[in-house]
Amino acid sequence: MTTAIDIIDTAVKIGLGASISGVTTYFITKRSHRHELKKDMLSDKKELLKEIALKLEKCSSSFNHTV
What we know:
The structure is a single chain. The protein has one helix and no strands. With 67 residues, it is mainly α. The protein has one domain (1-67). The radius of gyration is 29 Å and the shape is rod-shaped. The mean pLDDT is 93.
């Protein structure tokens, strides 16, 4: 026979498990999002440096041809 205490005990266990899962998921998602932002920033920085290097190369080669 199921008593009210058994039902409350089960409900508390389920609620606690769900809460732990939710908090863990939140922190993992937050960390993953932060990592993606850093990754995107580094990618953008890399592209800018490539563009600057190409422009410097063009500028340098045009000065070498005129002199």
